[in-house]
Amino acid sequence: MGKGDATTVMAGGKVVPPWAAKRRRVPFVTVKDLLWAIYLYPLRWLVAGSPRATRGLAQVATPMFRLLSTRRAAEVRARLTNELGVGLTDAESDVLARRYIANAVRRALDDLDLANDREEPICRAFRGREFLDEALAGRRGVLLVSFHWYAERAAKRYLAKAGYPVLSVRSQDPHDPRASRLGKRLLQPRYIRFLHEVLRDEVFAEDPECSLKILRRLRSGGITDIHIDAQYTRDLARVPFLGRDRSFPTGPLRLARVAGCPVLPMAATGHLRSLEIRIDPPLPLDYTLSSEELCRESMPVLLRAIEGHVREYPDQWELWTRL
């Protein structure tokens, strides 16, 4: 049989259909699956009785996770060095990569406390609250636009407790190309349910009525947050970001134009017991423009604001390894 045959391939000396060979390359279970199974089941209930258990676990888990994440840390160091430009030394990128890994562990443990509802978030700084209050006073709702910050779930819980409930938009079935068969069938659905217990106030991007639900919240004078570093839509714009043109979804600005609401960039840093929330002034948007003109004019302004957040808090942005 020829090497390029379209119907069969050689695998282990046997002729098999391509779909069978492809399926064999997907493992049934991985070490990552075992760690997630421990996290979602016994670990969650172990720490449910005491917030102190979570703090103690953080001290133990962070060094262990660093050992398991040496490849990821090296990738983050390379990204930081390449993307943040001249001026970042090897020692500085190494420190930031170590903080990035520690923040990932801390966020995972914060999620346990948020799901168990055992401890109130503590916010040590809420910068730009006056911008949020002024925007809400217009009674057209507020659209917050952010990146995937490690502390954003804890920040949303704090905002809800402070009288600013935020509707989150997220994927119901996030794609993980490295997922095993067990992980995809059993652990990922359980994790999706777990995230609902953490976020609570959410709408799925795959929901056919997602846009309508967002508009309903905005038109009732409420707040919605959309991550602009996740491509939930095919409507993308190439925008300068960290020194090169990259694709970002234009959906948030299109929705804001329909609702006639202000758009405020937001960042959340720290962790559950030491949060810092930053909300920037509303973007200068001209809703008399067409949707295409508005996106062409305002997307670079929005991304410049968020790029400033990334440069100020590089170890707090989750998606360095997916840039």
Which structural traits does this protein have?
323 residues; two-stranded antiparallel sheet; disordered N terminus; single chain
Query: Numbering strands along the chain, what is their spatial order in the largest sheet?
Result: 3-11-10-4-7-5-6
Rg is 22 Å
Percent helix: 40-55%
* Through-space gap between termini: 41 Å
Give the number of DSSP strands. 11
Number of helices: 11
- The coarse overall form would be globular
Rounded mean pLDDT score: 86
> Into which percentage range does the β-strand content fall?
15-25%
The low-confidence runs, each spanning 5 or more residues with pLDDT under 50, are 1-22
**Structural class by sheet pairing and helices:** alpha/beta
Give the biggest beta sheet.
7 strands, mixed
**How many domains comprise the coordinates?**
1
One letter per element, helices H and strands E, the order comes to EEHHHHHEHEHEHEHEEEHEEH
